[in-house]
Amino acid sequence: MIFSKNEAKQKSKSPVSATKESINQLIKQGSTSSPRDTLVIDLMDEVLLFAHTQRSSDIHFEQWKENSLIRFRVDGILLDQFTLPNYLHEQLVARLKIMTQMRTDEHRVPQDGRLTFSTPDSTVDVRASIIATAYGEKIVLRILADSTRGLSLEQLGFSKDDLTNIQAAINKPWGMILATGPTGSGKTTSIYAVLQQLNTRDVNISTIEDPIESKINGVNQSQVDPPANFVFATGLRALLRQDPDIMMVGEIRDTETAKIAVNAAMTGHKLLSTLHTNDAATTIPRLIDMGIEPFLISSTLNCAIAQRLMRRVCDNCSQKETIKIDRARKILPDDIIKMLFGTNSSITLSKAVGCDKCINTGYKGRVGLFEVLSNSPAIQKLIIGRAESATIKTQAQAEGMRTIEYDGILKLKAGLSTLAEYIRVLHE
């Protein structure tokens, strides 16, 4: 469907509310060969608002052979929401291209865009990506909610000891603080929390991000632009000429970026960034693999924060269940069994049930699992000696580091999540 020029300029009135029933009713009304333009506008607006009220981080619009599907990612899990005819999906694609200022006549080349929409109490930024698939164009919308961006380190769920170690790293006049973990593990949220703490009027803070996920007053934020050859490495070089005190680069992805980052830390700057590693200790061999000399890592790394996100059990419907050790031994390694059960033969943990408050998933929200490795003199010696990550981890534990597995066990015992969720996050 092609929208008129007047419609393209139209700013639709945002709905006050949206429900699954109201959206399904619009889909039913639109299940004709030529649904009116206003219906498509209303449908898109209601899907956006409903996704936001359901705490979705992403919306997937997918076209398949027989029909199309709209799915929401909630607390890290993709959930089917709506089924609709393919021709209605195609009209939603056209509508989104207009909303995000993409080319409406391009159906083969991937496109990216942004939009904002209003809710009754806020304005929400959205990042859009469209790519061609075998059955049609697929859209993924990333909802850049501010609900976690203003959180402090204390609110993220770090233990008292971890907070002390992170604070010690922050207080150092220069050096690197790195957050590690897989995609979607909350690394940027943690780095933003550190930035918020460092954000005072007497320092110059600059960032290079891909993309800028949330704007922070007082922080000079720039976004990479690969077609213009403005990538992390070139951006970081440019920042060094901006009289920075503190720099943040969204991710250390390659050798060039890693070398510039380490050089920045060596020359008296604080540098924050993220890496993809499984635990905190693996940060060190990862940097060595990127061509960074061990003596440079030992002198510039202040701390590495490994993390995961585990779904929080719904307070409204959760129940308790007794887990016997014989059952747990079938699915968990011995070291985890020892941490979980101690000398007991059974343990009582939370159980997910499901209700209308949690979209019948049994979970609502997420809790962070953390592991903070501080670069002590003993760790520095191991780094210079090119010790394996397991050896570094053992030394860090001897110095009091709480592993991510143990942090998860403590949060299980506190009733924050379930054994099934713990296994999904750390042992699948």
From TrEMBL:
<dbReference type="GO" id="GO:0005886">
    <property type="term" value="C:plasma membrane"/>
</dbReference>
<dbReference type="GO" id="GO:0016887">
    <property type="term" value="F:ATP hydrolysis activity"/>
</dbReference>
<dbReference type="InterPro" id="IPR027417">
    <property type="entry name" value="P-loop_NTPase"/>
</dbReference>
<keyword id="KW-0547">Nucleotide-binding</keyword>
<dbReference type="InterPro" id="IPR001482">
    <property type="entry name" value="T2SS/T4SS_dom"/>
</dbReference>
<protein>
    <submittedName>
        <fullName>Type II secretion system protein GspE</fullName>
    </submittedName>
</protein>
<comment type="similarity">
    <text>Belongs to the GSP E family.</text>
</comment>
<keyword id="KW-0067">ATP-binding</keyword>
<dbReference type="Pfam" id="PF00437">
    <property type="entry name" value="T2SSE"/>
</dbReference>
<dbReference type="GO" id="GO:0005524">
    <property type="term" value="F:ATP binding"/>
</dbReference>
<feature type="domain" description="Bacterial type II secretion system protein E">
    <location>
        <begin position="240"/>
        <end position="254"/>
    </location>
</feature>
